[in-house]
Amino acid sequence: MKRNVAIAVLLFWLSTGALPSRLWAQAIKATPEIFKQFSEHVVKIEVVETGSAAKASVGTGFFASARGDIVTNYHVVSKLIHSADRYRVEVTEPSGQSSPAKVLGVDVVYDLAVLRTDRHPKGFLTLETKPVEQGTRLYSLGHPRDLGLTIVEGTYNGLLRHTLYPKVHFTGSLNPGMSGGPTLTHAGTVIGVNVATEGEQISFLVPAERALALLEKTARVENRPGNGFLAEVGEQIQANQARYLSGMFSSKTPSISFGPYTLPTKPTDFFHCWADAVRRKELPYVAVTHDCSTDDYIFVSSEQSSGIVRFYHQLLSTAELYPPQFFNLYSAQVQAGNTAVFGNEEEVTPFRCQTRNVQTQTGKVKAVLCARQYVKLPGLYDAVFRVATLGATNVGLVSTLNLSGVSFENIEALSRRYMESIKWRR
Amino acid sequence: MAPLGYVEILDAKGNVTERVRIDSFPVQVGRAYGNHVVVNDPYVCPVHLAIESDESGRLFARDLESVNGLRGGVDGDRVSVLELHSGAPFRIGRTLLRFCSVDQTLAPTLIDRQTQASWLASSYAAPIAGLIILLLLCLDSFLGSVERVTVAKVVSEPLMTLSMLLGWAGLWALASRIVVSRFHFAEHVAIACSAIFGFLVLSTLSEWLEFFFPVIPALWMAGFLGSGVILAALVYGHLGRASAMRRRSRLWAALLVSGAAIGLSLIIDFANRSKFSNVMEYTGIVKPIDAAWLPSTSVNQFMENTEKLKKELDLLAQKARSTQP
């Protein structure tokens, strides 16, 4: 009986010929409709320099709770976090209504911030933590280069593999200014928060669950002084580095053979390693390089990023050069790259170094440890640890470990394990 | 007939400017040309003074009622008669005089060290020193090159250095010609070569020391002082050929020049240090020797030492935080 009814209904729908088109219309809205329906929840966020009343940076955000919480990127409001007395945040709704906002919480590792204004929103966008299928059509909203609210179509391509922090791979063009904006499904649920792009349609989103977690944390926060966030930023980076660096370069780290040397490589999945060699005929020596690095830096301020771990081995060998000649080359290699690319007086102290000839398990090395401390984030350091093997006359290895935004305990622990993981045959 | 002695006219420093032979007494001294001793001093009277001897052979100076009188010693009181002792000065007007008898005791003969430093003056010194320096510089240039090189490339830079050295020696030779009327070019070349040799030795030595003992910060100071000593020696040597200065004043001049040079570079160094920079300062020098010879610390010691590094950074950060709003 039931079956008959079902068949009858089906036949009815088929006979009217409306089934496919009606279903389609219900399931997938056209982009203009999506824009019309959801864009009112998306706001422009401006950080304004109080002295000149001119905007210092522009980004996007969206209402994400009935309380009026606005989700955006940490990097959109980072200037305010660093100098609360020099900047304020202004939120502009699509209606043109502007109102001042305050920061309630930040997640510097995932590049998120939650703001709130005094206005009650007409509605808000819900965040979706359930995964969608690869290839699902997504719509990203934002203010690219402050050109006005824009909608960008793209597709969902899953979570990035081999990254330290999960990120959604969104195939669509995000542009500066869209940062902090939502990327939605056709139903209007937010899959992720716009955060970065690598050009050519390769863009990244912060997964919605990170934004939900931050919203939960800030749910009971009503008001916070603007200058209290730096300490929290420091603590978040501190906790994060303690988590992902623990055990790195332990004895289980895979190794590669590099001439007579056995060297650490790819300690975890989120490292990417590359190798290259210089074997030019006109040069009387050969230089081989093996370079491993994490991709996931943490944006701290426009002057400073942090959280990158990089290490590289440079093997020099010669069959032609006399030992004093070879060692001139080798000395220059040990000295090379002794200047950090980033860093200014407000953010970091100058470097201080310690150099010693050290006896390791397999032989003697020249070991150099240089470090500097973050001025605004006490207890966090950048460090360069370099080891040059000694004793041979026609072959030498310079191996360097770069750490940024780590505790001094981790500098010591990682340097020690790194030095011990470098071995060679004599 | 042997003279009885000499009347000497002295300049303000006590150097003899004129010497008048005395064969008999009395001797008349004054500005007038009829005197035995003619003194060119407007404060001296035409006939100012007479020098007489008594029966026992003692000598006296007698003021001949002059305007400005006679004074014993350099600035003694005015007297009308003064007993003269050989070698003791007295004054008329603004002129110092003294009488020296023929048996006046003399200072011992000075040894001439300028002609004694004979290896510099020998005609081989400069070419040999130049050749040695050229060879050393070529060796340095060859060992310093890490690409395949031609002879021309190895030699060109040392030749440039050598020609600059010749130019330097030439300038000093010119100064010598002006001041002491002789060029001494070869000697200036040899002196400059010695200094370059000194710098080569110093830099090699400090590299090896830095490699062996990377921990000692005094090495940096020693390098500075070493350069200072070489510079002082260079100036001292050049001045010896280019002036008639005495050893002591040459030494002072040399120390002054090298002190000034060191002071200046210390100031520049300090100014650079107090500027903020992203450079990691360490020496990357490594040398090809058997590792067994190399003093070293254990991994544990290295790690324990990093506490000092941390303290230093904490202090720096504290300082930076206190200067920021």
Q: Total number of helical segments of chain A?
A: 8
End-to-end distance of chain B, in Å? 97 Å
Determine the most extensive contact between two protein chains: A-B, 71 and 48 residues
Overall 3D geometry of chain B?
A: elongated
Roughly how many Å apart are the termini of chain A? Answer: 87 Å
Report what the structure shows.
Chain A is 22% helix and 39% strand. Chain A is α+β, with helices and mostly antiparallel strands and 426 residues long. In chain A, strands 15-16-19-23-22-21-20 form a 7-stranded antiparallel β-sheet, with helices on both faces. In chain A, strands 1-2-3-6-5-4 form a 6-stranded antiparallel β-barrel. A 6-stranded antiparallel β-barrel of chain A has the order 7-8-9-12-11-10. The radius of gyration of chain A is 27 Å and the shape is elongated. Chain B is of the alpha+beta class. Chain B has 8 helices and 12 strands. Chain B has helices spanning 113-116, 118-121, 125-144, 151-180, 185-212, 218-242, 247-274, 299-323, and strands spanning 5-10, 16-22, 27-30, 37-38, 49-53, 59-63, 70-72, 78-79, 81-84, 89-92, 95-101, 297-298. In chain B, strands 2-1-11-10-7-8 form a 6-stranded antiparallel β-sheet, with no helix packed on it. In chain B, strands 4-3-5-6-9 form a 5-stranded mixed β-sheet, with no helix packed on it. In chain B, helix 3 packs antiparallel against helix 4 (151-180), helix 4 (151-180) crosses helix 5 (185-212) and helix 6 (218-242) runs antiparallel to helix 7. The longest helix of chain B is centred in the middle third of the chain and has 30 residues, at 151-180. Chain B is elongated. The model of chain B has no long low-confidence stretch (mean pLDDT 88). The interface between A and B is large, with 71 and 48 residues.
